[in-house]
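Possible regression after last week's pipeline update?

I re-ran a chain I had predicted before the update to compare outputs. Posting the input and the new output here so someone can diff against the archived version. Not blocking, just want to make sure nothing changed silently.
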Amino acid sequence: MNANLQPSGSAYFMARSTQEPERHTLSVLVDNEPGILARIAGLFSARGFNIDSLTVSETEHEKGLSRITVVTIARPKVLEQIKAQLERLIPVHRVHDLTTEGRPLERELALIKVAGSGQNRVETLRLAEAFRARVVDASTTSFVFEITGKPEKIEQFIALMVPLGLVEVVRTGLAAISRGPEGM
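New output (post-update):
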């Protein structure tokens, strides 16, 4: 018997799903109205899927539209179901899977507080400069850095700050946009 087929209790065989979960960035254009964010998050949680990152903001004030960026990990077939269900929600205008449409531009902002003294302060500032992190607050015992970039860059900076006195991290979540001249 073929390794990808499994008996189904009848004369017919069903293909076993071999698709691995993938990370996808969805951009959802919605009416800016109360409850829409809860409805979208509920759609994911009702199906047992985690949202890795979620950002939302009004992007077209005159039209009353907001853009929601959702990062999730799912199998391609399940992701298609999620997108179809999102598109059926009344205040949703468009759903774009930026991952399948091409390499999206993705950035995140983080505020990172690091405490320390002596040589650790010098090393903290040196690394911040290398990562192009900006000092937005400083005292004699701590710094708060602002850093933007790909999530991997921010993760790397955070990992380097742990032994130097990392105190706290606040992250915005991913903002993403497709490449090229077309808009949503």
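Follow-up from reviewer: compared with the archived run. The first strand starts at residue 5 and ends at 7. Marking as no regression found.
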